[in-house]
Structure formats: structure tokens, C-alpha cells
Amino acid sequence: MKDTANSFSLVAALIATVVFAAAITVPVILMFLSILTAHYAQDDFLQALPKRLIMGLLALLISITTMMIAFSSTLYLWLHQPVYW
């Protein structure tokens, strides 16, 4: 679980540096950092850490989806502009 959180925090940090509106991505990074800095008690593995991982993955999915929507809408608007000579 620690390796998974480490990998996804790297992906979330890369998305935060690329996307202009990084307000969506910051909670993703914080969620994965909370997994990496957990005390790893036995009860954490049963409830707290899986919930944090699922919430982090959902937030990461939402941020990737909004990034793709923003990119494709910008590309659409840029390519479909009328050319004035």
C-alpha cells in the first residue's frame, strides 16, 4: 500500500505541475501523503488506509478527467477558429 501511494502521489504531483487549476489536485497529493505518513497500526490497515487510498484514487481520477476535458476543449476552440486574412 505504501508503494501504491508513493506512485500515485508522484502522478498527482506531476498533474499538479501541468494543470493550471491545481486546486483539484492538491487534495489528491495530501491524501496520498497522509497514507505515506500514517503510523501503520493494525487497525489502520483495516479501515483508515483503504478509505484514504480509495478517496485519493477517486480524486486523482476526477483531476485527470477535468484535465483531459480542459485540454480537449482548448484544442477544439483553437482549431475551429475562423481565419481572417
From TrEMBL:
Highest taxon listed in the record's lineage: Eukaryota
GO CC entries: membrane
Chain ranges passing through the membrane: 12-41, 53-79
InterPro entries xref list: PGG_dom (IPR026961)
Alphabetic keyword roster: Membrane, Transmembrane, Transmembrane helix
Residues annotated as domain PGG: 1-27
PANTHER family to which the protein is assigned, alphabetical: ANKYRIN REPEAT-CONTAINING PROTEIN NPR4-LIKE, CASKIN
Protein name, entry field: PGG domain-containing protein
Species of origin: Gossypium mustelinum
Lineage: Eukaryota, Viridiplantae, Streptophyta, Embryophyta, Tracheophyta
